[in-house]
Amino acid sequence: MSAAAVPAPDPAPDDVVLEARGVEVEFVTRTGHAARALDGVDLSVRRGEVLAIVGESGSGKTTLARTLMGLERPTRGEVVFGGAPLDYSFRGLKAYRSRVQMVLQDAAGSLNPRQTVYESVAEGIRLHRRDRSDEQGRSEAELVAAALAESGLRPPERLFLRYPHELSGGQKQRVLIAGALALRPEVLLADEPVSSLDASIRGEILALLLRFRQELGMGVAVVTHDLGLAWNIADRIAVMYLGRVVECGTTEEVLTAPRHPYTQALLSVVPEIEQLEPVVLTGEVPDPSRIPSGCRFHPRCPKLADGTADRAGVAGDCVGTPLPVLPATGDHRAACHLA
Amino acid sequence: MTDLAAQGADAAHTPATVGRRRSYGRYVLGKVLGSAGSLAFVLVLGFFLFRVLPGDPARTLGRGRFRTEAQLEEFRATYGLDQPLPQQFLTYLKNTFSGDLGVSLRYRVPVSDLILDRLWPTLLLVGIATLLATVIGVYLGVISAWNRGKATDKVTTGTTLTLYSMPEWWLGLLLIAAFAVGMGPLPGIFPTGGLHSVDAEPGTIGYVGDTALHLVLPVLTLVLVYLADFSLIMRSSLLDEIGEDYLTTARAKGLRDVVVRRRHAVRNALLPTTTLIALSIGFVVSGAITVETVFSIPGLGLLATEALTIPDYWVLQGTFLVTSAGVILANLLANLVYGLLDPRVRS
Amino acid sequence: PSPAHAADPVRLTVGITNEVDSFNPFLGIEAESYEMWALTYDYMITYSMEDMSPEPGLATSWETSEDGLTWTFDIREGVLWSDGQPLTARDIAYTYNRILDGGPESSSWGSYLTSVTKIEAPDDTHVVLTLEKPNAVLPLLPIPIVPEHIWKDITEKEVKSYAAEPTDGQPVVGSGPFRLVEGTAGGSTYRFEKNPDYWQGTSHLDEVVFQVYKSDDPMVQALIKGEIDFADDITPLQVKALEGEDGITALNGDSPGFDEIGFNTGAIDTETGEPIGDGNPALADPKFRHALGYALDLDQIISKVYQGAGLPGDTIIPPAYSTWKWDPPEDEAFSFDLDKAGSLLDDAGYTEGSDGKRTMPDGSPIGTLRLFARSENKKSVDTMDYFKEWLGELGIDAELTTMESNKLTNIILDGEFDAFHWGWYVEPDPDSMLSYMTCDQRGGWSDSWYCNPEYDDLYAQQNGATDDAERQEAVQRMQEILFEDSPYLVTAYNTIGEAYRSDRFACFQPQPDPGGILLFQYGVHNYLNIRPADDAGDCDGNESAQGPEAAGGGAGDDDDGSSTPLLVGGAVLLGAVVLGGGAWAMRRRSTAAYRE
Amino acid sequence: MSAVPETALSERTEPLLDLRDVTVTYRTSEGPLPAVRGVNLTVAPGQVVGLAGESGCGKSTLVSTVLRLQPSGAKVEGEVLVLGQDVQTVGWGALRALRWAEASIVFQGALHSLNPVQRIGAQIAEPITVHEPDLGDAAVQRRVEELLEQVGLPGARKRAYPHQLSGGQRQRVMIAMALACRPQLIVADEPTTALDVMVQAQILDLLRDLVRDLGVGLLIISHDLSVLADVCDRVLVMYAGRVVESGTAAQAFTDPLHPYTAALSGAFPRIGDPAARYAPAGLAGDPPDPRELPPGCSFAPRCPRAVDRCTEAEPPLLEVAPGRPVACIRVGEP
Amino acid sequence: MSASTPALTPRQVTRRRRADAVRRSWASFRSHRSGLFGLALLTFFLLVALLAPLLADGEGLEVTKATGGVLESPGSGGYVLGTDENGRSIVTLLIWGSRISLFVGLLATVISMVIGTLVGLMSGFFEGWPARILYRVTEWFLVIPFIPLAIVLATVLGRSLINIVIVIGITGWASTAMLIRSQTLSIKERPYVERARVLGAGRWHQMSRHVLPNVMPMVFANTTLTVALAILAETTLSFLGLGDPTRVSWGSMLEDAFDVGAMTTGAWWYIVPPGVCVVLVVLAFTLVGQALEEIFNPRLRGR
Ligand SMILES: Nc1ncnc2c1ncn2[C@@H]1O[C@H](COP(=O)(O)OP(=O)(O)OP(=O)(O)O)[C@@H](O)[C@H]1O
Ligand SMILES: Nc1ncnc2c1ncn2[C@@H]1O[C@H](COP(=O)(O)OP(=O)(O)OP(=O)(O)O)[C@@H](O)[C@H]1O
Ligand SMILES: [Mg+2]
Ligand SMILES: [Mg+2]
Q: Is the pTM higher than 0.90?
């Protein structure tokens, strides 16, 4: 059953809650090379909006989400929450995490196999003593029940004593969402929330996210490589390539009038009956330990390969001139010499 | 031919192979350093364990021979016991590295000579026993894993486990009773102990045969007891592989069951087994000590147990160092082989 | 090895349970090593089989000067070293001088040359010893004589690591009845070939091989199977078991030694004379100690702890040395009589307190006596266990601690004990054993810290006595004193179990004769006596030698005696295996593995 | 299935794969588990057939029967005809000869389906040496390189170990391996699951090219209907072990007749379709446990169109239009 | 939103969950026939050890109170399994010996488990040089052969029951530490630990609530396997003469039997029963341990 269509709210630009400013994350690989998984990302999540972060595998989506969560410390740049840079002390992080929550990529693995559903959901409540601060004076069990019910698991008590292996994939994902939701976060980061789920179930989960945004005014950032999903629920889209945001704007703008050749290629390969002319990029996602000069996309860029860039007279720039980091404004922009 | 050679050259330059070389180098370095660390640890342990002896070592070590203070002094000087501890440690290191393990309190000969003398029976015993236990154990492990849940598996695993539960020297005693003394219809065909008969002439074929005959029971004891170790390791290692999808792929390719087992399952399962088996060598060495005692085989183990009654500290220290070093080196070797065999070591 | 065919070399294979620690007579201390030296080398004087009294060896005769300060020995002529060089008085003097010079050589043998100041060989056939005071003990110099032409190249420093083992296939140079051709200290096989030119007549054995077994049982099995011909040092139970075997003779031979419970009679710092340690004051009282002698049921100890192989003990001279031994008179001898022990203690003031525990004469508690046993010796532990119980019945608390002999040595030297269990081997001449109880030996060989001036006087007297009867009297009086003062309670005279294939070899003569042991004796007589059973005849008229066995049961015959029980054992083992297999077999039928 | 004339086989008049009323039941400790229930399916030469369905609906189980690779605890009923031979009953020798030489499989999860400690070249070469033992070593090596190049990898990569390749590359190796003996039928079990969009597009392109160039029959399994719609001629949709609908790719995707197919198709919105904005389509509830199937139509509990009748009997698979069998009693009803 | 009040308090929930977990583990254990057999055997020996004073008079251990003859054979004189060389009943010795053998085995295991688990957890969970050093030390202890080290330690420490326990305990912990470490390493990387971090959990919480509970079953399974090895070790050390000579354990019985030459004497009742007891107890622990391992280790489950 499809969820009722929800009209898109008008996200005010000044409603920014969570922001990445020039964030750079480097990993040292086993061979001793530095891999720059994030290479200067400016991105903002606003109150009550759904932001989709899309890109190929390895483009740095998960790293970005983890950095926003404070699980990864940027080697440069900063994460700003509510106007203040993130405090990485234990207390600071704990306080932060009661306001920003994340649902991890792997739903099946994110539940402790030895904890019951009840314990998994209650964990956050206990850590932050939410039962003491609850305005309605609800007990821990009541809070857990409420969170499960809100996530569409009804009646919640029936699930209390279940272990993860007794749940279906969709139920696990919902338990995870309930666990995050029980803290009433201001921002929810969801990393590939449905990619491990069956097609028929994903609709429900997505509808759930939309509902939270709508009912709780939560900012939601969804990480995905599925453009269809973004079309389904996102207000805004940021397209990532090799550690950078290469195009961002509202969903309609980005998906119906993509400006970056990479976005265009991504869009063209979405399997459909009536094909656009698919632009299948050759090669794999480049290695973040060897970022190409100039436009980082140029070795795979179809516009450069077919001479479009040359005709526009930017071919030299494509190869040699680096592009600036896209600012985190609401406008539709693309980091491309052609755009 | 030429294009094959060209391909070879070409392949050598792919990043994958280069990366592999480099990472094997790193792996080797890591393992060698680790083993060196272990050796150093054993050295230090060897030193301190024997200096924390309660009481005056000179008096203890002198076994009541020395009654006058002068004799004690001389003894202390001989063994460097009159020097400060750090100095003693340095001397100890220097001596150990130059192969000087001290002089046996009992035999008054250099410990290194004693050890060299006693090394080869132990090597022979441990070597043959490990080899046989490994081969048979791995074979049994394969059989029982491949037939998991069937009668073969149950009988094999049950028997090996029971043998595994036996103190090896007790089994040795029973074997002596059964096959050396002779029991009921069994003639006592094997010697009760020693490494060779009194009348065997060294260097002859008969001598070799005679030594082999003497080794049958002790080796059998060790093999029977340690079989289980290897067969259980192999069994669980192979069971790990049996669920893997690549075996289904192999079957789908039209390979026979035995080929799937041999070429894919067993070969892959053997890899992690090498290092585990190497770890078990320590147990076999331990077992050899008691088995040598029961069978009166003049090896390192017997040397150590004799030294125990005196106690001949330098001999104990020497055998401790040598057996530990041996096991550490065996482990290193196994790890290096494993690194060579398994392309995944770098991940 | 079967001596059946004349062409085959006659080989006696002896199983032993301990290694030779050194073939160098200046280094080893194990009993096995002494035997090897005895086979390899000669002595000036050897021991008789009957009572171990001195007998001519290399020295054919000897005499003392009037003042007892000069000893002259006549040395046998025509004795050759195994490399063909003649053995002369100079070799003897050389050997003795090495010891006299101090150094490592003196540690084993120095005590035999106490009061000797000079040793000379005026010619090839005479050795003259000069003493500073008379010494009755001197004739029995159990020092192996080594060849000067070999040993002169070995410096005092080198001697500490000199192996004296065969090199490059060359046997060790010696003059004894046998020659070591193969073997190293700590090794497990030592092979000797006979010396064809031995001055005492050649052995009937072509070879003697010693084979080390790390434990008794395999050794005994080897004997049963005929792999060896002689098993040394086996347990009384094994002797009992072997008594039924065809073709095997087994016996417990009296060994010249005793086991004792020693007391801390008062440890002192030998330099200052101040008391040290924390021995219980009650044990400093001879009356207290003596009373405890009636609290030992030696018969039970012999039957349980020694499995019946041994004799209840009384003094520190074992019955083997009948000339020296003093026996306590019937009415004074210790017997197990707790009432008597109790009344003696009451008389001495150690009365029972209200709690049933005995107190010191001044009424203070005695406390708990600390008994020590040697952990590696089961007899030691068991004996002390009994003792502890009997002390308890007397109203004296005791606790038993076990430790290695080395640690015990230190504790004894520190005086931090009350009682311990140990034992001594006693040499044919009682002098050294007697010396251990003198005041001078405190902090040295003495372990009871015993000191009695009267005893010391008698010791000096017997040591210098030139008259045997006078010496005998002194020695016996000393034993009486020790019996009264009881620094030791001698618990048992040990035996050593031995067994040999009497279907193969005959003519063993025990030492002491009768009742003694067959090998590892003082001297090497038996290596010359023993013959293959087939042609033993009447052992050349040697009456006490054990003749060949009548029944000629071959080696490796059935030995039902021990195999049936082992069959049962094997069956139990088999059962265990089956049980284990069954346990596994009962496993749940799990889903079968993926297969084709 | 006794007498199939030799000529018939060589003429390839009949389908490469013909599953007739195949039922697979796993024996488990908690009782029998019917994973596949009465599935009929054919693949003709040059045809691409898609099989869609949620996780656990029995797709892989069905695939495993094609080369008789199902676990020994599985009971297979019905006929599995590969080139006219019933693989479930032929002798082992014949079966081995058929495996890979006539039909090969690209297994789900390329990482685990490759032997981790053998070079990929050796793994590709293995079936060749098994089935064409007369081929010389050099020829085999040459074939391996050709195969790799055919799937867009440099021939020299044959010396690589699986862990040195990316997911997409491994999937290509699996495909190269499947082509090794030039089979007539290839079964690809979820070849693109777990790959990202761009790599998925690459692999689908590759498969499409292969079918076109080699004329093999391809059975491709996926839970993503849009993927199948993209590459297949025919699509079958499975639910709880049964086929509930089949039709041409376009029909199934754009004009689903079964409510389940409709839900699957709606799960992947067409970008630009305003109806899908803020309206993710989905189904309530979870797939049923195959051991305790609901009475009647197993989809009924989750079906938005379900009525009481639906729980009465399992609806038969009826052809409601030419080439469009559907198992729903409410087809055509408003 | 649900308006109904949940019927259960969190504590009840937890208790129920625990009971449930125990019930499920027991259910799966019950399906392991060999494990059950081991458990039965184990229960028997534990009962014997616990009830020793009721089963056999403790005075029967004292050589001074021994009533039987030297090495009487089974059946004679009312001794079911005969007597030892001191005339003590073998059955009595076996019964009391079980106490020492099990005591040493269990206590040594506790020591090595505590050390092993702590070291394993620390070196697995934490990063940096202390963890690396711990890991190295573990590796060292892993490769050093057991008996030589135990001989050396026992020589240095002296012979007493508690020293034997210490020796076995401190030579045997390394394999446990390795196992725990590798488990910890893998569990630490599990997404649910990361989820706990996301929820705001500190290290202590992660370790105590997620890592430890998931490692514990393996510790438990490993414990039973370690007891088996520890009992074997006690027997071997006793045999080498490193045991406590004042106490009767199966190992010391075997040593005594060996010393008095029971094999030659044909006194099989002195050699075979203690050995069989050792084999059975070790086997029992091993079987139970393996069954537990199979239940608790998801890697082995379902095969
Ligand atoms: N801990 C790490 N150490 C080293 N490199 C890392 C680490 N985590 C991520 N990377 C690298 O950073 C890059 C970005 O990874 P990330 O997981 O953020 O990608 P992603 O967009 O989430 O991909 P996917 O869609 O596959 O989840 C990759 O090249 C990855 O290999
Ligand atoms: N070996 C087995 N033993 C018992 N049940 C099994 C076995 N393999 C699969 N099953 C069960 O059979 C059903 C069908 O499994 P199958 O693997 O065929 O599904 P699938 O459609 O391929 O799913 P996915 O999309 O997850 O691969 C599932 O319920 C599964 O749990
Ligand atoms: Mg990701
Ligand atoms: Mg599948």
A: no
